[in-house]
Amino acid sequence: MHDDQQFLETVVKALVDNPDAVKTDRTVDEMGVLLTLDVHADDMGKIIGRSGNTAKAIRTLLRVVGMKHDARVNLKINEPEGGTKRMPREMESAMDSDGGESEVEPKSLDQAIDDLKI
Predict the structure, then answer these.
(1) Which of 70, 77, 65 is nearest to 6 (CA)?
(2) What is the CATH number of the domain that holds 10?
């Protein structure tokens, strides 16, 4: 196993609840190295992180590992089978009681910016 693939597995297995379900694949082409990651459906949130920050951090670290070996390393995270894509809250609230869509007033730019403030 190559350094970049070993590094990815070590980091991901330390983050997840189901380390035995972690699988990685490594392919090399003219674009560089592509690492593909599969994890248990229950662990996807831990790998992606809030606003994708954990996945971004893992990708950044993989690029550093790749630079050490003069290679461009990219990470693809596969959607697990049986995974559920969560509906954004705005869409959930837009659904009326019988499952149909109800009218939702679009937000102004100022409202959207205010919602982003922490």
Answers:
(1) 65
(2) 3.30.300.20
